[in-house]
Amino acid sequence: MIGMNESSGRDCPVETLSLENALKYIDIRDRQLLKRKFIKTKNMQIAVIGGGAAGFFSALSASRHHPNAKVTIYEKSNKLLSKVKVSGGGRCNVTHHCFRISELVKFYPRGEKPLKKAFGVFSPKDTVNWFESRGVVLKTEEDGRMFPVSNTSQTVIDCLMGEAGRQGVGIKTKLNVQSITPLEERFRLAFRGGESRTVDKVIVATGGSPRAKGLAWLKSLGHDIAEPVPSLFTFNMPNESIKKLMGVVANPASVKIMGSKLSSSGPLLITHWGMSGPAILKLSAFGARDLHEVNYNFKVLVNWTGEKPEQEIRTILKEVIADHPKKKISNVNPFELPGRLWDFLLDKLELGEHMIWQNMGKKNINRLVHLLTNDEYQVEGKTTFKEEFVTCGGISLRDVDIKTMQSRKVPGLYFAGEVLDIDGVTGGFNFQAAWTTGFIAGQLQ
Predict the structure, then answer these.
(1) What is the CA radius of gyration of the chain?
(2) N or C terminus: fewer CB in 10 A for the chain?
(3) Cα 158 to Cα 190: distance, rounded to the nearest angstrom
(4) Which residues make Cβ contacts (< 8 Å) with residue 144, sequence separation at least 6?
């Protein structure tokens, strides 16, 4: 490729110059090589299967790196960029303001090590530069999530659609690819309904599948499939009375899966069906396979003070007793918990509303400390959101060259996005994986 890489922000001469003028930019010894590449790619047909975030970014990258090829996106439905539309409550959580790759990869329960190399090619900072250079200015919120300043996902959709139009990327909807058949240096795509097309390169960016059979057409090409299971989901607690506090947020809170080493901390949202929020969603991602194995029936322990240890809590309570001996315990909330939650916890201990701090006694203090740090709840099921469904599982990373995103089993076939066994926690990390793997796949190295 002639010119600078994507993150440089400079235009690539080969995109706007003729072959003859482009030759002026390189050493004479490389001119014959460029001529051969130009002729080879001039009529190259590139098929991108999937019209989501990874599919669009793959197509735009392919068009940029191979400006003489014809790039076409094939989407099975009549909806494009549907997850982008609903992400972040309709605002689109484009990426996360975690620019240190060594820290960034820790937010991926699956794919951590391979992504370290991939993010070295296209990082969150590159994502920010890419969108802002095209008029989509991003802002960073307190928790590091990055959104367009417009606060609407339509801004991101318009950018991607507009860029596809400017680069001449074709878009075909309601074309469901049923199979890929490798030919001699080419591929035949068979669509539902009997139609077929022959192309030179294929990038699969179909997103996650809730069941392994949804990836059978890729398994038939020799790829190993990591069994798909839900990754980001909320905890259902049908028999727990805490549900009456729906809408209350405890921040920070720390949550552990009883009988395991799985734990997470952050904001916890109480809902009408149980618990949600970043602390729960992160825990569900890292425990995706383990929780699937127990059929989503398990117990959690909640530390409502965040990660404060018992001894620190005892010290704080002693100070409260010394400073407010005759005040009602309901009127002094030493850990600044939401008022409704504090009252709920005191009721759970059956401490009367007239109880004052100096009358708590050692036994009640012990009970309060234990409840604050190890409040137990039974989980019986999960809830996922169809529009933002994220899976753990997909094409095994052992079958993919992470440097190129090319299949190790089928040369000329590439993968991007959630169809791979890569997933991140909530906060823009899954979109970042889509942008990164899509950018690399589109290079078609």
Answers:
(1) 26
(2) C
(3) 30
(4) 96, 97, 98, 427, 428
pLDDT at 9 over 60: no
Query: What whole-number distance in Å separates Cα of residue 149 and Cα of residue 389?
Result: 25
Question: What's the whole-model pTM score?
Answer: 0.85
Question: Which residue segments constitute the domains of the chain, with CATH numbers given?
Answer: 43-229+390-443 (3.50.50.60), 233-383 (no CATH)
Contacts of 370 (CB under 8 A, 6+ apart): 310
Please give the DSSP secondary-structure letter assigned to residue 26. Answer: S
CA angle 226, 175, 130 (to 5 degrees): 70
The 8-class DSSP code of residue 68 comes to T
d(CA 174, CA 168): 20
Contact, 160 vs 60, CB < 8 A? Answer: yes
pLDDT 10s digits, 88-128: 999 999 999 999 999 999 999 999 999 999 999 999 999 99
Return d(Cα 333, Cα 423) in angstroms, integer. Answer: 39
Q: Is the dihedral of CA 248, 253, 258, 262 positive or negative?
A: positive
